[in-house]
Amino acid sequence: MKDSKIPEGPLADKWNNYKAKAKLVNPANRKKMNIIVVGTGLAGSSCAASFAEQGYNIQAFCFQDSPRRAHSVAAQGGVNAAKNYKNDGDNVFRMFYDTIKGGDFRSREANVYRLAECSANLIDHAVAQGVPFAREYGGYLNNRSFGGVQVSRTFYARGQTGQQLLLGAYQSLLRQVNTGKVIMHTRHEMLELVIIDGKAKGIIARNLETGALERHAADAVVLATGGYGKVYYLSTLAMGCNSSAIWRAHKKGAYMAGVSWIQFHPTCLPQHGENQSKLTLMSESLRNDGRIWVPKKTGDDREPNTIPENERDYYLERRYPAFGNLAPRDISSRAAKERIDAGYGAGPMKNAVYLDFSDAISAQGKDKIEAKYSNLFAMYEKINGINAYKEPMLISPAAHFTMGGLWVDYELMTTIPGLFALGEANFSDHGANRLGANSLLQACVDGYFIAPYTIPNYLSGELNTSKTDSSHPAFEEAEKSVRNQLDKFLENKGSLSADYFHKAIGRLLYEKCGLSRSKENLEEAITSIRLLKESFEKDLLITGDDTLNSELEKAGRIADYIELAELMCHDALQREESCGAHFREEYQTTDGEAVRNDTDFCYVSAWEWKGKEQLPQLHKEPLEFESVQLTVRSYK
């Protein structure tokens, strides 16, 4: 297994020890160095702006028409930081422990502690940018609580926190675009990584407006392209979200880690029909005041307000009294699915549970609830035509966040020297389950506070190497590979659309590698995925040509999804335990709780691509815990 490069010293000193010894690049030399940043969400924009501010030359790429459309805008509920403004016992170590425990002890201590340690700086940075966090009457920043914790450490801007943080990063990025230090390539998609002498030295990108393939060279490449939850088709992610950048890097030698650790968000709007293309997220912050329940009678068709209190099952409060409605996402989602599968589901399709605010409105008044959640209630009414101030919301679990991604070391560098992965594109901080409001935190901390130290440590060793030019044969070879794939898609004479295969792989994964998994189902899934891959290669039909063509874009992304789906199933199959979001039906207690196996599986599963017809190779990174004790993860 590759070296994770964890610094020496006590846990609380590791990051300071690293920064004290990290190599630097002087200001004059920074002007000579080029960095490619793929993705301009929170992680990518913050990284590009930070490096441009230092004097590096940046080329930033996104497939949207503006960085403002990055999916970071969809994160609603808040961002965590251990500032203890509520004086309720919070501190860096408690936040670190909550995150380690929330991830079911399947993440590195050093990375997680650094996340908690840097969190306070992020809030100060965002406030300085003008991010309009909610404030108390006296002017202090307000906090609320999220699932998996017993303190209030989540800073928020109503239900628009991701959007407001992204606007702060975007204005920092645009400042550097205007100075000329950042060249912004919108409507461009990375289709291949270029490696020269074993190091990442550039990318092949496709101009999505013209279809032209472009070569771009650099001294280092940063992937900040988000997660791959859209592999399930029906998910909370935007339709454009995809896995192609990290998957193309994986096929060039970058390990993928924790691939089957997929989070299902407990508070999404339920599916309402077969022709739906995505699901809508309702912020987890609603669980601060909403109570979750189902009828005690199966198949109950009564209106929710007519069901008496004694005929309601507040199942989270019943099963997890210490945390109740704020139980972590994986536990809350599985509990909802268990009730729905048992016949207690609500709504027209009986595929939902109730999220009820009547008690909170009675206790606090409608004005207080409106001040905290008005945009979420307005969005719910716009979509469903239901006033959630007067009757409960309908919610259900949906594929959301991917804890897995490219394996990175402590420096956020992949197994390919010079290739870095930030935010949800890497696996590093969340273990087998992410606590709510930690995704915005990781994306910002990676881009603003970690990469600006770790990437120069690598670049300092590149100063005396010869400059890479896009005329190098490696660029020609990479471009030819991309062109061959595009031509193959266009030459196919099948009869099925790319969307057909996307829906098929999504349905298969949800049933076989979703909220619960079993050995039998996973083995069946691998067989089915291979058959689907054969069908995709001969039955796909792409209309149009190689210029402006969204169907051609989809084909490449879905080809990657199909290969990724098989790796997800291999990853879930080899991990014979239940941990976090990975729930193997064979490994549970009599009352349905997860059974973890620390003796045999206390490691990160890192996978190496061995070729199209070859099985992936597993590498194990042992997880060593010095500052916390491995305990049974209980929220009861």
Write the layout of secondary structure elements.
Elements lengths: L13 H8 L5 H4 L3 E5 L3 H13 L2 E5 L17 E2 L11 H11 L6 H21 L24 E2 L5 H19 L2 E4 L2 E9 L2 E9 L5 E5 L2 E4 L20 H8 L4 E2 L4 E7 L22 E5 L16 E2 L1 H5 L9 H16 L8 E4 L1 H7 L1 H19 L8 E10 L2 E2 L12 E3 L17 H21 L13 H19 L6 H15 L6 H21 L10 H25 L23 H4 L1 E6 L8 E6 L14
Overview of the molecule:
GO terms for molecular function: electron transfer activity; flavin adenine dinucleotide binding; succinate dehydrogenase (quinone) activity. Belongs to the FAD-dependent oxidoreductase 2 family. FRD/SDH subfamily. It is found in: Cell membrane. Its EC number is 1.3.5.1. The active site is at residue 329. There is one protein chain. The protein is α+β, with helices and mostly antiparallel strands and 636 residues long. Among the domains are: 265-398, Succinate dehydrogenase/fumarate reductase flavoprotein, catalytic domain (Flavocytochrome C3, Chain A, domain 1, Alpha-Beta Complex), CATH 3.90.700; 473-593, Up-down Bundle (Methane Monooxygenase Hydroxylase, Chain G, domain 1), CATH 1.20.58. The chain is built from 17 helices and 19 strands. It has helices at residues 14-21, 27-30, 42-54, 92-102, 109-129, 161-179, 244-251, 315-319, 329-344, 358-364, 366-384, 439-459, 473-491, 498-512, 519-539, 550-574, 598-601; strands spanning 34-38, 57-61, 79-80, 154-155, 182-185, 188-196, 199-207, 213-217, 220-223, 256-257, 262-268, 291-295, 312-313, 353-356, 393-402, 405-406, 419-421, 603-608, 617-622. The strands form five sheets. It has a five-stranded parallel β-sheet. It has a five-stranded antiparallel β-sheet with strand order 11-15-14-12-13. It has a four-stranded antiparallel β-sheet with strand order 16-10-18-19. A hairpin with a 5-residue loop joins strand 7 and strand 8 (213-217). Helix 3 runs parallel beside helix 6 (161-179) and helix 5 (109-129) crosses helix 12 (439-459).
